[in-house]
């Protein structure tokens, strides 16, 4: 490798976001409800960390309207969306008021207090067990306490 090949080239944030938008990944609704309030947002930055114990990773921007409720409640549900969920995904992905977001779809309350979309491909009922700040986001480590597939 030559010196010019190994030199780090700074990547513009907008170019990085555009490149990341081209990656195929599932879309999820992350929901929470409890003393910190009801909230939800769409996320694609979700993945498995471990199966022993079952743990998911969820990333959230600290400026998100859902951030305070999510971190105060300490619980969340990862609802994996499928075909036919475009409308609810759009509501949770924009600036739609919380009540209007949850007016779409049919929901059921989980043991944690979070809300599961009844026709999600799968719903993971989770407790937040760790948090790590990286740039503008927090990486949440979530212990999976229950799983429901439709």
UniProtKB/TrEMBL annotation:
A single BP term in Gene Ontology: pyrimidine nucleobase catabolic process
SMART domains: Flavin_Reduct
Keywords in alphabetical order: Oxidoreductase
InterPro entries documented for this protein: Flavin_Rdtase-like_dom, NADH-dep_flavin_reductase, Split_barrel_FMN-bd
SUPFAM superfamilies listed in its UniProt record: FMN-binding split barrel (SSF50475)
GO molecular function: FMN binding; riboflavin reductase (NADPH) activity
All copies of domain Flavin reductase like, residue ranges: 20-150
Protein name, as recorded: Flavin reductase domain protein FMN-binding
Organismal lineage: Bacteria, Pseudomonadati, Pseudomonadota, Alphaproteobacteria, Hyphomicrobiales
């Amino acid at each position: 490798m030559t010196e010019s090949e190994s030199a780090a080239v700074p990547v513009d944030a907008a170019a990085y976001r555009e490149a990341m938008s081209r990656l195929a990944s599932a879309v999820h609704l992350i929901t929470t409800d409890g003393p910190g309030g009801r909230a939800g947002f769409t996320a694609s930055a979700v993945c498995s960390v471990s199966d022993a114990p079952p743990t998911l990773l969820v990333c959230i921007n600290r400026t998100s309207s859902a951030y305070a409720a999510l971190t105060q409640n300490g619980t969340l549900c990862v609802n994996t969306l499928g075909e036919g969920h475009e409308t609810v995904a759009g509501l949770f992905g924009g600036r739609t008021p919380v009540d209007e977001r949850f007016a779409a779809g049919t929901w059921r309350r989980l043991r944690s207090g979070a809300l599961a979309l009844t026709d999600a491909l799968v719903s993971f009922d989770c407790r937040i067990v760790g948090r790590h700040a990286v740039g503008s986001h927090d990486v949440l480590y979530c212990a999976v306490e229950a799983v429901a597939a439709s």
